[in-house]
Amino acid sequence: MRSKQTNFLQGVILLAAIIYILNGALYYFSPLSFCWVFNLDISEEWLNVIPTNEFFFLVFTISRAFAALLFSIGISMVLPLFDPLRYRGLVYYSGVLFPFLASVIFLFASIKNMSVPIIILGFTYFTIFALTLTAMLITRKSAQSGIE
To answer: What's the Rg (C-alpha) of the chain?
Structure first.
């Protein structure tokens, strides 16, 4: 039987996994629908420039590859649901370190540009960071003693 603290950790892990999978899949499979979700107006000119401009093509391709990585991280977050003690490192790196760094990038970029989608992503990843860090601190004692 798992404790309430471990159940809280698993709930936070599940929430992060769902957000990672949705963000990664949405952008990987259809970057235009990602823009549609945030109500961004994309002109036909922009779509025609991507294949012909080396820089835009590079940024577009790399961002899709990172979307695939985000999708993969979301799927890997299923592992700590079954054995939270064994995969604490995965939770730390995928649930604390990555969302903290991503939220810093998003929130600083939103200060310069005031882009609503970037602000939303920044707060989403900061929330994942804060919840996961809280859950990791709550379960720290029981994890050190080997109890789930």
So the answer is: 18
Write the DSSP assignment of 47-111 as a string of letters.
HHHHHH-HHHHHHHHHHHHHHHHHHHHHHHTTHHHH-TTTTHHHHHIIIIIHHHHHHHHHHHHHH
Q: What residue type is 113 in one-letter code? A: N
Check: CB of residue 52 under 8 Å from CB of residue 69. Answer: no
CA 47 to chain centre: 26
Dihedral sign for Cα atoms in the order 79, 85, 90, 91? positive
The distance of Cα 34 from the centroid of its chain, to the nearest Å, equals 14
Phi, psi of 110 (to 5 degrees): -70, -25
pLDDT digits (tens, 9 = 90+) for 40-74: 777 777 777 778 888 878 888 888 899 999 999 99
Instruction: List the end-to-end C-alpha distance of the chain, in Å, as a whole number.
Output: 8
Predicted TM-score of the model (pTM) = 0.86
Q: Which two tokens stand for residue 44?
A: 């036909």
